[in-house]
Write a structure and sequence with these properties.
Elements: E1 49-50, E2 60-65, E3 73-79, E4 83-89, E5 94-100, E6 102-107, E7 113-116, E8 120-123, E9 129-133, E10 139-145, E11 152-153
């Protein structure tokens, strides 16, 4: 849900995701930890970068671990309240846990999913969807990608 071109990361992430996730010209990977880690989404040391074109204004992403160009990268995605993510799909499946806010996902040909803090959702690979962060608090979503991170926006409108 973060990068339009699967072969490189977007442009403007400034060390994104602790190293490189959505934008940034030539983002670098977050080191694979050799010890257990815990990261709080409110940690002032967490490095947030702007999301790629196609995401709503104010969208930010932070790399938690891994390399977005390789399998098994983990990220936080932060969306402002009352913002929409356009219709898109990912090469990878997404394993998601909502950390804060209220997040609505509409997978094509499936009932809508409403997530509240602490909820888990799974998005199969290549299943088109669009999403909405409800009014109130920003939405912070933890996403674990199984394959390299990409976001393919469609012309399909919802």
């Amino acid at each position: 849900m973060l990068v339009n071109n699967p072969s490189r990361f977007p442009s403007g992430l400034i060390i994104v995701f602790c190293a490189a996730l959505v934008l940034g010209a030539t983002a670098t990977a977050a080191p694979q930890p050799s010890q257990p880690i815990k990261i709080d989404h409110n940690d002032p040391a967490l490095q947030w970068g702007s999301c790629d074109e196609g995401f709503p204004a104010g969208c930010q992403v932070a790399l938690l671990q891994g390399d977005p160009a390789k399998p098994n990268a983990d990220v936080f995605l932060r969306l402002p309240p009352d913002s929409r993510v356009a219709h898109h799909w990912h090469t990878s499946a997404e394993r998601m846990v909502l950390v804060s806010g209220e997040f609505h996902i509409n997978f094509d040909d499936h009932p809508p999913v409403v997530m509240r803090a602490g909820n888990y959702a799974y998005g199969p690979a290549k299943l088109p969807h669009h999403a909405y962060c409800a009014d109130g608090d920003p939405c912070v979503l933890f996403i674990a990608f199984e394959a390299p991170v990409d976001t393919i926006f469609t012309d399909h409108s919802h």
